Amino acid sequence: MNTPEAWSNERNDGSRWQKLLGRGRGRAGGAQQTPTPPPRETYPSPPVGPPPGQAHYSVPTAGRRPPVATQTPPSAAQMTQPIRPQQGLPPQPRQARPQVEPSPVALQRLRRDLGRSQVIAFINPKGGVHKTTATVLSAAAMGTARGGGVIAWDDNELRGTLGLRAGSARHGRTIRHLVEHLDQVEAAGVHLPEHLDEFLRHSSDGSFDVLAGDEDPKLQRRLDPTTVLRVLDILTRTHNIVCIDTGNNVESPNWRTVVSSVDRLVVTTVPREDAAFSADWMLDHLEEGGYGHLVKNAVTLLSMPTPNPGPLLNDLQRHFSQRTRACAIVPYDPSLEPGAKIEFSALRPETRAAWFEAAATIVDGL
């Protein structure tokens, strides 16, 4: 295999990069017809009886979600809170610090009425490609701009870390506990938001909610397609945007159920060969399975894990801009390097502005 430096030169449509990425599919030499999409997977939900004296709550078919009340977004001035000095200490001179100035156009795109609840899944079968980071920061940007109404769900079947990295752990409850009490939550009627909140965590700044994953690997057997759809239905009834951090097994019934129920896919990757090939193979897999319409309308998110973007960045941006609806790039930020708790406010101003723009790109057209 040639070096990455050799791939960064200008090349025509028959380049080695395109041929490698187009493995046997004919993308480098000719058009290929997209298979007819199969019908969206649906699974019957078991009947749930309401408690005496409460209205019955029904689980609709996935993909036909009722509108969710839209919260009033905050003004730009409300997005920045003043820093108060510690009690007992004299006020210190405030040092000049660059303020976050998200693009007014990006904020307008993020705040528009989406009509109904939207489901966004962050996908790539390879680990270490910033799926969790992208899910958390996208939810934070959306929730900050919209004033709430956003939830991040860790649907990684094997010990996902979103619950640990996304905010305050005010309790230890996870998706496992929600599944155990799913009947009672579904039957809560008009009190559904309050009952669901008992199982959610919240980001540190309160901009979005979190449904944490569980450490027990046996849980994956209980997250069957019917259960996944029931959980997803509850989340779309209580939130305007549902961001899902998916697992790595594209053959999992859980993964396929989520993909068949989303409004938009976000392909996360970093500017490395293995990550890009994994993402491209996954798009092939989706197209061959009849989900070409989701691939065409997907957004690719290129995230920088190091200060140096590397020689493949331009090639990858060009390639995924052609394969998916859009390609957004977010810069490296030192606060993300330890892999610890993610604080949106701790990002550099330019990084925050980039995430606002990326989040706006994700919701465009929904």
Would you give an account of this structure?
There is one protein chain. This protein is α/β, with parallel strands linked by helices. It has a single domain, classed as P-loop containing nucleotide triphosphate hydrolases (Rossmann fold), CATH 3.40.50.300. It is built from 14 helices and 8 strands. It has helices at residues 4-7, 16-21, 104-111, 131-146, 162-165, 175-180, 182-186, 192-197, 225-238, 253-259, 273-288, 292-296, 313-323, 349-363; strands spanning 118-123, 150-155, 201-202, 209-211, 241-246, 264-269, 299-303, 326-330. Strands 3-4-2-5-1-6-7-8 form an 8-stranded mixed β-sheet, with helices on both faces. Helix 4 packs across helix 14 (349-363). The radius of gyration is 21 Å and the shape is globular. The protein starts with a helix and ends with a helix. The model is unreliable at 1-17, 28-38, 41-64 and 80-89 (pLDDT under 50).
Secondary structure layout plus pairing:
Elements: H1 4-7, H2 16-21, H3 104-111, E1 118-123, H4 131-146, E2 150-155, H5 162-165, H6 175-180, H7 182-186, H8 192-197, E3 201-202, E4 209-211, H9 225-238, E5 241-246, H10 253-259, E6 264-269, H11 273-288, H12 292-296, E7 299-303, H13 313-323, E8 326-330, H14 349-363
Helix pairs in contact: 3-14, 4-14
Outline:
Helix content is 34%, strand content 11%.
| Percent helix | 25-40%
Q: Provide the structure class.
A: alpha/beta
Strand line-up of the largest beta sheet: 3-4-2-5-1-6-7-8
The topology string of helices and strands comes to HHHEHEHHHHEEHEHEHHEHEH
Q: So what's the overall shape?
A: globular
Strand segment count: 8
Within CATH, the superfamily carries the name P-loop containing nucleotide triphosphate hydrolases
What's the pLDDT, averaged over the residues? Answer: 79
What name does the CATH topology carry? Answer: Rossmann fold
Q: Termini, distance in Å?
A: 40 Å
Main beta sheet strand tally, sense and closure: 8 strands, mixed
Gyration radius, rounded: 21 Å
Q: What is the CATH class designation?
A: Alpha Beta
